[in-house]
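re: that chain from earlier
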Amino acid sequence: MNIATLPLLPKLGRRLARRLARNRSGVAMIEFAFAAPIVLGMGMMGTETAYYVITHMQVSQIAMQVADNTSRVGERDVLTARRVFERDISESLVGAEKLGAGIGIFERGRVIISSLQQNADGGQTIRWQRCRGAKVYDSSFGAEGVGATGTGFAGMGATGREITASSGTAVMFVEVAYDYESLTPFDIFDGRTITYTAAFNVRDARDLTGLFPGGPEADCDEYSAARPT
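^ sequence. v structure.
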């Protein structure tokens, strides 16, 4: 520094002090440091909640799609009652696999298909049942063969509002259970089981004696995400 400029330093210092006193600009670093975690946390919680709601919607759609598809499947013969084969049910489950690919529906969940029909005594029975999924979960409304005789089985669904099948037809009742996996570190919904049911009456005259062999069988005794072989 030039020695001649030394006497000017106090004057420059006073000018700088006055400028700083009048200056109203700045960076809110401290405020941002306090607010950022709160804003970020609220954003992540909002994202988590939205994803949870979307997952609910997907599980519901899977239940409805499988119930609708299985109510339509079967051998197309206008002269006889439509027969339903094992491969028809397995193919319907493939449709559920595609719809639920984004959430791993069979890796973290289970789809249960039941054919609700009337028995010989006029009561309700689950004539057959097929399943797929790695989640260890059994139907909340009964296994295959329940209500085979008598009238003690009320039907399937919420107590007091059970769904029943009419004589000569069947109701395809589908139950889907899925273990939710969090998208963010906020695991407020993690591990919760999402369950939905759907039911559709079969669309055409159907052979109600049971499923006919032909194709892979989705056995309810197996808990696997893999396609049945």
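The first strand starts at residue 109 and ends at 118.
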